[in-house]
Amino acid sequence: MSKAPAPPHYVDPAPFDPGTGDPGRHADERLFRASSMTLIWRKFRRNRLAVASLFVLMLFYAMVPVVEVIAPYGQSERHGDFLYAPPQPVRLFHDGAFVGPFVYPYSFTFNRETFTRDYVVDRTAPQRLRFLCEGSPYLFWGMWEARLRLVCPPEGGTFFLLGTDRLGRDLLSRIVYGARISLTVGLVGIAVSFALGLFFGGVAGYLGGWVDSAIQRVIEILRSLPELPLWLALSAALPANWSPVAVFFGITIILGLLDWPGLARAVRSKLLALREEDFVKAAELMGASRTRIIARHLIPNFMSHLIASATLSIPAMILGETALSFLGLGLRPPVTSWGVLLNEAQNLAAVNIQPWLLWPIVPVVLVVLAFNFVGDGLRDAADPYHQ
Length: 387
What we know:
It is a single chain. The chain is mainly alpha-helical. The protein is built from 14 helices and seven strands. The longest helix is centred in the middle third of the chain and has 37 residues. The model has no long low-confidence stretch (mean pLDDT about 80).
């Protein structure tokens, strides 16, 4: 029986292009070769609520460097004729005709029965707002004098979108200025907390023994203390003659000192699991120091979990500063923060007569919710078992 002839052997002379062929197979190869941060980002993008919250946080923090430009007035600029003035809503149409963004002016009469100011809106004279205009002067970043503002009140008029306080200061401008302090205190506080948590947690998890036992006892003592009374006691211990900047850094350090035990416990538990891995043993046999092993081999292996922990800790810092300032033991005027603004609304008149004084609570709620949603999204994306 004769054998069938072998098929001719053919070699394609064209150069091999790895980008051609089955696109699904190459997509899988790129997925397998992707870094952990790339995989986390791909999983994070599936969470639409977390992505939207991240966009909100980016808007808030993009506002921080340019609050002087965004605010219509200076944070301490007073208007003696408009004490406790109600909000002036922005309108577009007047008598059925499109006018553009404008406000109606108002005047007040003193009510001798209630001892309050009754404001009357004049709906016959619309006043158009000005944009990218020259407003009241300010020091940009405390160094350069400038006048450019995103929106300005009408010529000879006022623009109080959220109303004014007891001294006639524009509440919207003060909320915008307060964002710089309230949003920054969380970042500075978490930097202090992370430095302490990574150091003590890394030492306890890698060395173990009596060092681990001593650090754990300190953590247990700190976590057993009631948090809010401890905050109040440490804040009250700050000297009253300190400058606003010194008080700001004092508050952030206090918040950081009280928040690191939870992070240290998380770092310790991760290091206890990772220190027995083969790559750690290999680094030890090659003569790497303990500091290098912790900083270059152990901590980067769970950096994604640290990022998720940070996003969940920052809102706690913001709420802590707000609570201390609201109770009068945190930041104090002339510093403006959301907690300082809420401190001026802790009376029944703010709820019954001037409810617009409670507006500073809105950005606090938005930022805290956004951080929590982003933290949940990062935690789920960093979890290798979460689909």
